[in-house]
Design brief:
This protein is an alpha/beta fold. The chain is about 45% helix and about 15% strand. Keywords: Decarboxylase, Lyase, Pyrimidine biosynthesis.
Length: about 270
């Protein structure tokens, strides 16, 4: 999927919502546990209930890997279902990979070719040769961790090196890599005050923004400082939507929460 196709979908749906699929068997409705593949059935119900309100789905790969071969099979069925049934949806493999070049190439093949995701999250700590193998895939996107929403982000990301915060150096350096036009960046919503600085460095890139909702990030603040002329934001919500209910009405309640976010986004878009 191209960024223009993603933007077209944002315009059509009046939404820049990404729904995170972080499936925990201890949290999903108990009646689903009686089914052959409860993870997939949970995802399918959430997807069917929210697909017209969001522009992306973000399966967190760890929540599938934790269940071994069965979990991986559920992931395959989930991504196939999205691609076959709602092909306009942008898909994000939240895998946070990042290794030496030949290993990164294999990770890229796994997510872009075998599973056919549109994008994958990666950690840039090992530098250019760990990221460029992902960037080599046409119409695929590499979403690089830049400034994350967790407490430990301050351990390294905001430390100054030669007078400049490390996250800024990471952003600036990444722009020089081959096929950097395929880069997107993760910037946490709980650090809304940093978006102005991020936009000075990557004014045109899409930013994947976790932390709105359950983690306390403000949608209006993120949009105020982070939105660009083409919106340039994918706001992710996971727990606040998918676990809105643990009863048989879980999909309906998920839709209610997704609709609240979509309507807030529609209002913001109408004002820009």
């Amino acid at each position: 999927m191209t960024t223009q196709q993603l933007y077209n979908q944002i315009q059509e749906k009046k939404s820049f919502l990404s729904v995170g699929l972080d499936v925990d068997l201890d949290k999903i409705p108990k009646h689903l546990l009686e089914l052959e593949d409860p993870i997939f059935e949970f995802n399918k119900a959430i997807i069917d209930a929210t697909h017209d309100l969001c522009v992306a789905y973000k399966p967190n790969i760890a929540f599938f890997e934790a269940y071994g071969l069965k979990g991986w099979a559920s992931l395959q069925k989930t991504i196939n279902y999205i691609n076959d049934t709602y092909p306009e949806i942008f898909t994000i493999a939240d895998a946070k990979r990042g290794d030496i070049g030949n290993t990164s190439s294999m990770y890229a093949k796994a997510f872009f070719e075998d599973l056919n995701f549109d994008s994958v999250t990666i950690a840039p700590y090992m530098g250019k040769d760990s990221v460029e193998p992902f960037l080599a895939f046409e119409n695929k996107h590499t979403i690089m961790l830049a400034l994350t929403s967790n407490e430990g982000a301050f351990d390294f990301q905001t430390l100054k090196v030669d007078g400049k915060e490390l996250y800024k150096q990471v952003l600036e350096t990444s722009k020089s890599w081959k096929n950097s036009e395929n880069l997107m960046y993760v910037v946490g919503a709980t650090k809304a005050e940093y978006f102005t600085e991020v936009r000075k460095i990557v004014p045109d890139a899409f930013l994947l923004v976790p932390g709105v909702g359950a983690q306390g990030g403000s949608l209006s603040e993120v949009c105020k400082y982070g939105m660009n002329a083409n919106v340039g934001l994918l706001i992710n919500s996971s727990r606040g939507i998918i676990y809105a209910s643990n009863g048989t009405d879980f999909a309906k309640k998920a839709r209610v929460e997704a609709l609240k976010m979509q309507q807030e986004m529609q209002q913001i878009l109408s004002e820009v």
